[in-house]
């Protein structure tokens, strides 16, 4: 398994209906909770005052990582930068 650092900027449209926005955010929160439960989401942080997340995800390869990210309800509104992490050398 490999770990990937994902810097994710969320860009929901400013004029989005508040109910639709709340639905997207709730479904996305549940999706991330599922990733956490199955061990794919290792760490997550949010930047204060911004729609910015920092996630460490674990997957077999970049294809599986793409599936994990593309499964997020917010995926169409995300700008994602990925950095592959390597294990520390002892």
TrEMBL record:
It holds the Pfam family MIase. It comes from the Bacteria. Residues 4-87 form the Muconolactone isomerase domain. InterPro entries: Dimeric_a/b-barrel, MLI_dom. This is Muconolactone Delta-isomerase. Its EC number is 5.3.3.4. Keywords: Isomerase. One of its GO terms (molecular function) is muconolactone delta-isomerase activity.
